[in-house]
Design brief:
alpha/beta, NAD(P)H-binding protein, single chain, Rossmann fold, 3-stranded mixed β-sheet, 17% strand, globular
Length: 318
């Protein structure tokens, strides 16, 4: 891979994939709708000549075709909000896959774990896809679209992430907790504080995603991006308190609390049905990655949280 394009480059996963690609000396085209955000991204990378940008709309495949014509791989990191998923996710999938098919490109789709529903056994890539939620069913339809045989020229793969954290994170469940603690404010924790869950540190996720993407035999398959092991909310908060010195209250929000907040917030209203993940957890198996790609990147939580919180505190002061 000599050149890649990252769709949704200014989002949480898009930013870390841009950084990882650049660290390997790969030319990167950052694709998005906001010129200001794209220019800020380039500034963050000290205006390296390896990083350029193209303006376009993820829902207009022609703009992707024009931007991606010289790229070897397309990384699809753009997403839609919960309350828009039913109407927009299929349109997004059609657009990116049509562009990849026209160009005959490899395309890496970043997705989540809603397709699986409740955990039956440790979640490897063959785990039954029997979602009990509306969003899970929509995501299964999205996967079917990505791997539809009508795409004759595109080569696609899907990488699946659990909940994640990192300074670039924007919509994860852990983000309000960490941003609140970094700002020395009262904050919230979404879910049960006692439930052991896994989170992936976004820079680790980016490393593994790129490692998968550079191997020709990875395409046509689903791939898990496992987290750094199990940790409870209480343990996360304890570590964060030690790093930040913030001893202010962290309020746990259960399903009923989210339902009440959802009366005033359409995104939180749609979050209610997938709160089971915060109460039961879902553990992804990394066995396939280890067998075919190599060692799993897993920054210890204390180290990843320290890096994240210190950068958030620095941003808050600037």
């Amino acid at each position: 891979m000599n050149k890649a394009i990252v769709l949704g480059a200014t989002g949480g996963t898009g930013q870390v994939i841009v950084t990882e690609l650049l660290s390997r000396g790969i030319e990167v085209i950052a694709f998005g709708r906001s010129e200001n955000k794209l220019k800020d991204l380039i500034t963050q990378h000290h205006s390296t000549p390896l990083l350029t940008y193209k303006l376009g709309d993820i829902f207009e495949y022609q703009t992707i075709v024009e931007a991606a014509v010289d790229a070897d791989v397309i990384f699809q990191c753009a997403n839609v909000q919960y309350h828009e998923m039913a109407d927009k996710l299929h349109l997004l999938g059609e657009s990116v896959m049509k562009a990849a098919d026209i160009l005959g490109k490899k395309i890496v789709i970043v997705d989540g774990i809603y397709v699986y529903g409740r955990q039956i056994a440790k979640g490897d890539e063959n785990h039954l896809k029997q979602p009990h939620t509306k969003k899970g069913s929509i995501r299964v339809e999205f996967e079917n679209l990505v791997f539809d045989k009508k795409w004759k020229n595109a080569k696609a793969l899907i990488v699946r992430l659990p909940d994640y954290y990192g300074v670039t994170s924007q919509n994860s469940y852990l983000q309000p907790t960490l941003t609140g603690l970094a700002a020395d404010k009262i904050s919230v924790f979404i879910g049960n504080l006692k439930t052991p869950r896994e989170y992936v540190y976004l820079p680790d996720a980016a490393k593994m995603i790129v490692e998968i993407a550079i191997k020709d035999d990875s395409y046509g398959e689903n791939w898990n991006i496992p987290g750094g092991g199990l940790i409870t909310g209480k343990e996360i908060i304890k570590i964060a308190h030690e790093i930040t010195g913030n001893r202010k209250l962290v309020i746990p929000l259960n399903k009923n609390a989210i339902r009440i907040i959802g009366l005033f917030d359409p995104v939180m209203r749609e979050a209610v049905e997938i709160m089971y993940l915060t109460e039961e957890g879902f553990i992804l198996s990394g066995e396939k990655y280890e067998n075919r790609i190599g060692k799993i990147a897993a920054t210890p939580y204390k180290e990843g949280l320290e890096e994240t919180l210190k950068l958030l505190m620095k941003k808050g002061k600037s």
